[in-house]
Amino acid sequence: MGKTTVALILVVILALSAGLVTGLALQRMPAASPVPRPARTPLAEELQLSDGQITEMKNIWESVREKADNAFADAQSLDRARDDAVYALLNREQKAEFATIQKGYVENLAKLKTQRDALFDEAVKQTERILSDAQKQRYREILASRLDRKPADAMDWLPKSSVISTQSVSQPN
Length: 173
Fold this sequence. Notes:
This protein is mainly α.
């Protein structure tokens, strides 16, 4: 398993964990509160954070998440550039062999994606079974805003614009 795949899996796990923690925290909040209070996470409880500290911590970590997402995108760009440079070094026969290897890789990666999405979608369904209708609606809104997808939609984490895509290596030059 490549470094990029491992990093991607870790980012997805972190994002899902953040969503779960947020969902659980929102579930514990009172239905009608005169003054909106920041969600109290287990960490906030453990550290006995004030509302102001919770808000500041949320801002800090949301900024980090955005920067980490950008770093991940930059790492993918570096991978593509490296792959393009290595591919350019190959002769016609090597490109043909590489196309076969790459096709298998992309197929296996797609299978992993399908498995991961099925696990996530099943967890969403199980979560929704324990929520009230109002909680389900809010949970779906949280998922849509945090994951930029509905549970049944596919997240696109397959390689895109690189010679590693099956389209560009299927016909060697």
